[in-house]
Amino acid sequence: MERSRRTAKRRGLLRYSTRALIFILIVLVAAFIFIAVPKPVLKLADITGITLTDPLGNTSTVSESSFSLYVDALNAAKPINRELVGQDLKTFGLNFTLKDGTRQYKLYVDRDFEKKNLYIETGAELLKVDSGYFEMILGNPVFDVLYEHNRPPRVALTLDGASNTVLPSNYDWQVKKADGRFHPARTDYLKGTDSYSFSINQDSVFGYEFETQPDAFYLFIYKDNYLVSSAQQPENVALLLDEDGLYNCIMQLEWNERDDRDFFGKAAYEFVLNADYPVRIDISAEEIDPGELLVIKAYNIQPHEDLLVETEFDFSPNAFQEGNTRTVLLPVSYFHKENKSYAVKVSSGDVVKEYSVFLRPKEFIIQYLSIDPNVAAATRNEKSAAEMQQKVYPLKPITDPVRYWEGDFIMPVDGGRVNPKDFGKRRYVNDAPTSYRHNGLDIGHDEGTPIKATNNGRVLLAEYLIETGNTIIIEHGYGLKSWHYHMKDLYVKAGDMVKKGDIIGTVGSTGFSTGPHLHFSFTINDVWINPITIIEQGVPLIGTAE
Fold first, then answer.
1. For a disulfide at 153, which of 126, 211, 425, 514, Cβ 3.0-4.6 Å?
2. 91 bridge partner residues
3. What's the total number of domains in the chain?
């Protein structure tokens, strides 16, 4: 009996021990499963947005198609001992926006890419991301800061030995990333945002230094939105500027793809040069024929600076500002004594230029003109003289401060009969000497032939005058005027603006005239100048091709 009780007791203990062992095994298995299969940290369905922040504070938004990449990487990451983490790390922000809040983590990237180490700091623990995610995650442009050549090489602009680093205004850049392939680098926050401006003078040395020498270098210089100069790798940029003012410069650099580089691309660097040069004065000639035009030009002169012109030519010229240049038109009358030198002195501040202009001897032909005495009496009398005094003479000193004319001056009549020696000739009318000189060209042509504006300008007068018949006077700016006499028809009126080539009237024989022709002249104020020279050569120092 006692044996039976002891046997039953042993059997009970055995059953209890077995149940306890099974319970312990279940607990261990559950614990193992709990440890071996970590509970998901985030659910993809809860994610509404993911952003990455680089060490500079720049933020990149992860596309929705890549949400699963970051969620899977985080959920599969395993806790590690913090002491196992390497030291060459870059820290990024990894921020998840959830339906019910946000989660913010730190993402550490080992800059030794061969190790493929990524770590996530959750706050409570440090997790190591599986290396299989390394290249996929680092493909995001926010990680461009990890690469040494994630932007074009630095460029330093040097002015008289001082250096100033500038950033590109835009670029197209490729960098070799962790996967060993080239990828476009992010360009929305690594561009220059500052305005780089430098003041230079005629003695300045303005150059550049490169972190990595480019394979191609082009410089484009603009002034008032026009390209004024371009060069391939100039040594001293200041030498490309010939006058003062503001210049916008664009430096285009290119680095080619090469086996020994982990980058290639092109970049543009923009800067402004404020050139302040001393006044420079030029004169168009120091020998001239009577009846021709001298031009004086002052460069690098600002509107507030004075320009004084003293001359023995008995003419008080005006100076006209255009940009940072000033132009003086100085006509030399055919009444001046020939074979003589005339002094011209031009000054601005401390800059003084003195010239001795020699007036060459020139033979002017003599013309014997016969005209009906009745026509002469009807067109040249006290009434016609008074009309000229009243209507024409007040127009001579008009000087519009705007240069209307552009480029070449054209002959007002196509195919007309012209004698180049017509200008300045002395005349006998009906065998009587005259006190005046012929002040223009007589262009013979058929009556009714169209007459064109020789250049752009403002019509000062367009009406019938007793002596000159139908007459048009056009101011081309700076006091330069063209005159048209004896016309049959007038197609413009005073105040009209005309363009070069516009038809302004037709050839006629009105007023003091012996037959159909156009009398065509030029003046600067009240001094007549040679039309042939203006037509063939343009205005000196301004030219015919502007």
1. 211
2. 108
3. 5
What is the distance between the alpha carbons of residues 398 and 254, in angstroms, rounded to a whole number?
55
Alpha helices for 306-401 (secondary structure H):
373-379, 382-387
Q: What's the distance, Cα to Cα, between the start and end of the chain in Å?
A: 135
Q: Residues 392, 512: one domain?
A: yes
- As a whole number of angstroms, the distance between CA 278 and CA 302 comes to 10
Q: Do 172 and 290 belong together in one domain?
A: no
Mean pLDDT for all residues in the chain: 87
Token digits for 92?
């990024």
- Three-state SS at 40: coil
Amino acid 191: pLDDT: 60
- d(CA 13, CA 3) in angstroms, rounded, equals 15
Largest CA distance in the chain: 181
Beta bridge partners of residue 324, listed in sequence order: none
Residue 149 and residue 213: Cα distance in Å, rounded?
14
Taking the CA atoms of 158, 164, 168 and 173 in sequence, report the sign of the dihedral they define.
Answer: positive
pLDDT tens for each residue of 114-173 = 889 999 998 888 999 999 999 888 878 788 888 888 888 889 999 998 999 888 888 999
Residue 428: strand, helix, or coil: strand
One domain for residues 204 and 254: yes
3-state DSSP assignment of residue 329: strand
CATH number for position 83: 3.30.1490.410
What's the domain range around 421? 369-537
The DSSP 8-state label assigned to residue 100 in this structure reads: T
CATH number for the domain harbouring residue 285: 2.60.40.10
- Residue 194 token pair: 């500052």
Residue 385 per-residue DSSP state: H
CATH for 415: 2.70.70.10
Domain annotation covers residue 545: no
Task: Tell me the residue type at 28.
Answer: L
In a domain, 453, yes or no: yes
Answer whether residue 173 is part of any domain: yes
370-414: pLDDT as tens digits? 677 777 777 778 898 899 999 999 999 999 999 999 999 999 999
Q: What is the pLDDT of residues 325-381, one digit of tens each?
A: 999 999 999 999 999 999 999 999 999 999 999 999 998 877 766 677 777 777 778
Q: Say yes or no: 310 and 238 in one domain.
A: no
Which residues neighbour 26 within 8 Å (Cβ) at sequence distance 6 or greater?
none
The owner of tokens 């959750």 is 122
